[in-house]
Amino acid sequence: MLTYLRNFFLGIILACGGLIPGVGLQTTAIIVGLYDELLNFFFQISEFFKTFGQYIMGKASKVDINTAFTSIDGKLGLPIILGTALTLLAFTQFIGGLFDRFPTQISAISFGIVLACILVPYKELSQRTWREFVLFLATFVAFLTLFSISPIEGTIEPSLLLFLAGGFLASFVCLLPGISVSTVFSYLGVGAAMTSVVAIMIAGTPTLFAFLALLLFLIGFLVGITISIRLVTYLIKRYQSLFLAFLIGLMAASLRILWPFVLTSTAEKILPWQESLPQFTQQLILITIAFVLVSMVRKVAENKGMLASSFGPKERTVIN
C-alpha cells in the first residue's frame, strides 16, 4: 500500500513539473530519479502493443498477449498515471492563469529548475572525454539554432499527414527533457489546429476532420513509441555517456526558450544587464531560489537513499 501511495505522490510531483512551462514531465522525472523507471514502464507497454499487433497478424498467441500484459509494472505505472492525471485536471487552468499573469516570473523559476536538472546527467557521466564534449557542443548549437527560428503559424485545418508526423515525432520528444510536444506542433504548423481538435473532442462535438486528425496522431504516436523507446533504451545501455552528453546539450539549449530577461513592452529577449535593476534582481532571486530548492531536495533524497540513478541500467523484458 505504501508503494502505491509513494508512486501516486510521485505522479502528483511529475504533474506539477509538467504544468510549469518549459519544465515538463521528462525533466521532473530526471529530478526525482524516475526517468529510467518510466522508460522501463513505457517499454513494457510498447511490448504489449507490439505483441498485440503480432497477434492480429497471426504471429503471436493469446498466451503471448497475456504474458506481455502481466509484464507491465502496474504497481509503478498506474498510481503515477492516476496522480499525474488528477493533478493535471485539477490545476491546468490555475497554472495557465498564473503564467498569463506572471510570465517572466514563471520563466525565471523554470529556468532555475532546468539549470539544476542539467547537473543530474552531468554528475552521472561516467566518461568526460572529447567525444562527449563534441556531442554536447554540436547538440547545443543545433538546438539553440532551432529554438531561435520562429514557429510556423499554420492553419486551422492543415494536412492530416502532419498530424501523423506530429504523433510520430511526439513519441520521441516525450522521452527527452528540454523540448515539449507543443514545440513540435508549433514547428510543424499544427499547434493551433491541435488545440482546436482537442477542444472540439472535449466539447463532445467532434467533426470528421477532428476525428481523423486525432486518430492519425494516435497511430503515429503508437508506431513511434515502439521505435523511440527501444532507441533510447539502447542508447542508455550501450552509449550512456554520449547519450547523457546529448541530453545536457539539449537541456542547455532549451534555456533559450525559458530566457526570463525580456522587454515587457515587446516580449523581446534581452541580455541580463539590459534589464532594469529591480526586474533583474527579481529574476535572479527567483532563478536562484528554484535552483537551490531543486538541488537541496535531490541532495536530501540522495542522502536518505530515496533516489537511485536516473539513468541506471535496468533489465527490460522482451516478449519474443
Automatic annotation (TrEMBL):
Keyword Membrane tagged: yes
Keyword Transmembrane helix attributed: yes
This protein's UniProt keywords: Membrane, Transmembrane, Transmembrane helix
Protein name, UniProt field: DUF368 domain-containing protein
InterPro entries linked to this entry: VCA0040-like (IPR007163)
Transmembrane intervals: 7-32, 76-96, 102-121, 133-152, 158-177, 184-203, 209-229, 241-259, 279-297
Superkingdom as given in the UniProt entry: Bacteria
One Pfam family named in its UniProt record: VCA0040-like
